[in-house]
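My current task is to audit a protein record that another person submitted. Alongside the sequence sits a line of tokens, each denoting a local backbone shape. Where you disagree with what is written, explain briefly why. This is what I was given:
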Amino acid sequence: METAANFIGKSSKWLVIVAAALVFFGWLIVTPQGLFGKADAIGYAVCHRIDVRSFHVGGRALPLCARCSGMYLAAMLGLGFQWLAGRRRTGVPPWTVIVPLALFVAAFGVDGANSYLYLIKETQPGALAGIPNLYVPNNTLRLLTGSGMGLVMAAALFPAFNQTVWRDRDARPALDGLKPLGLLLLLTLALDLLVLTESPAVLYPAALISAGGVLVLLSMVYSVVWVTIMKKDNQYETLAELWLPLMAGFTIAMLQIAAIDMFRFWLTGTWGEFPLR
């Protein structure tokens, strides 16, 4: 019985490795060429990539629009900050942190809804004329509100991941008060101000980091799902031991991205922005 169990365990590991290789290299073959082209294909799966709502470098739009760029850049910053603050902390942040995060969600929703309403009016003259816009949307607000949402995503995902995978956990929250939150906000604001310079030296790495952030967040989410389904909760002691669930999560993330890429390309016939008319 033990031999059969070992065989199944080894087989599942090889299955994950082979599946990851097939999915990843298959996706590399069919997506646009070049590093930026691959980043575009990742953004293509999660973002409308509308040209006028994106920052540009070298005459081309970034892989993600201004709002999504801010969201995934801030999410990566938030994850890194919490990792440094407490690698295995699992606690829910206190109300002094939750309330500002809730305000970020509200700001994201208000600005997103107002921006979408403005888009409808731009592309369909006369539509929704009776509903006024709160203000004229712009990429600066999209970047800032997207960044706020990215911090919320990081604050939710980091403890959830730790609660699921680690055997030895720290019950304290990584964001345990206004001081660490304030420092994280200052770092995020500094990052946003750098992006707003629209310097190629900033936008090139920002483009790749934000696209990579999509993969990182999805892989973490699906790793948690895999660990839960396989009933491997709280059985890992080191990061090296996590290679299988992380690879499984990465494979599922790539499957999702590939499926959306194929469907969107079939629907629109272009790797560019989503057609507005």
Summary: Residues 12-268 form one domain. Strands lie at 56-57, 60-61. The CA atoms of residues 71 and 144 lie 8 Å apart.
